[in-house]
Amino acid sequence: MTELPSCPSCTSAFTYQDGALLVCPECGHEWSLDNPPTPDEQAQTIHKDAVGNVLEDGDTVTVVKDLKVKGASSALKAGTKVRNIRLVDEDHNIDCKIDGFGPMKLKSEFVKKAQG
């Protein structure tokens, strides 16, 4: 039996082959055995907002719809501005601090990059 390489995204050793692709069951990353991504390609994840604008660390965004917040008595209202975001490679890909709510993780599909 051939030893499969570790996942280039999360370094998990539990990869498996699915046809021509290798798959990581821990993070869901898929790649080709013939053409593995370089570390530079892995680091270049592009995050886009609800309308397709590219987001960067430190941007200011606006929430586009009311969002229920676990453990909070009220929802996060559409139009709420969030300043100085930090992008991460997770399911909720924005780490931020919102006045009145505290530290929070948001999905980029529920925000729009603020003008200026």
UniProtKB/TrEMBL annotation:
Keywords: Hydrolase. The keyword Hydrolase applies. GO terms for molecular function: hydrolase activity. Residues 3-32 form the Protein YjdM N-terminal domain. It comes from the Bacteria. Belongs to the YjdM family. This is Phosphonoacetate hydrolase. The lineage of its organism: Bacteria, Pseudomonadati, Pseudomonadota, Gammaproteobacteria, Nevskiales.
